[in-house]
Prior knowledge:
This protein has helices at residues 2-5, 17-51, 56-122, 125-149, 161-180, 193-198. By secondary structure, it is mostly helical. Helix 2 runs antiparallel to helix 3 (56-122). It is elongated and about 145 Å long. Residues 206-212 and 227-231 have low confidence and may be disordered. Residues 1-32, 178-231 are annotated as: Disordered.
Amino acid sequence: MKKIFGSKKNQEPPPSIQDATDRISKRGDSVDDKIKKLDAELARYKDQIKKTRPGPAQEAIKARAMRILKQRRMYEGQRDMLYNQTYNLDQVAFASEGIKDAQQTMTAMKAANKELKGMMKTVKLEDIDSMQDEMMDLMDVSNEIQETLGRSYNVPDDIDEEELMGELDALEADMDFESNSVPSYLQPDKESELDSELNLPAAPTGHSTTPNRQQEDELGLPTVPQASIRS
């Protein structure tokens, strides 16, 4: 049957934007190479025109140079056209990428919206309010427990603060009186007014000076001072 009716040929996928851009860029590179070769030939013909004298030889060189210039203009036109095509393909590629990004963004937002709706079904405002009220009640009970545990024992509740301040003042007065009623024999010694007026010398201390020893002779006996005779 295939031999009679034939079989369908496998269709190749259409080229992508990137494939078309690469192909056009290669063509543009080949055109640039051709233009560079023509520029080198033009430079060589310019040197020959300068060196040759006016005449048939110079005219022949000019004719070749004109032909090279025409080719160069043609290649430049092709290059500009290829550059324009590449620019258009870049614009299309940029728009295509933007649409793809928008599609992915929309898909992600739809999935997030669906997930958020499912989560909101499990959370109710009434449950949150009731939980907040229960937390406040528990905090109040906890504060009452802390105050009860921190209460001091054997301390009456009907204590007058003014009465306590009066007792404190009385204790301070008693302390001042006790400090002023110290006996005289316990107080430090003070210089009497009579001693200060008479300026008496101080009592001698325990250290006494030893008197000068008398001189002794060779036998160890004290020497007798000799009286001097005056004439």
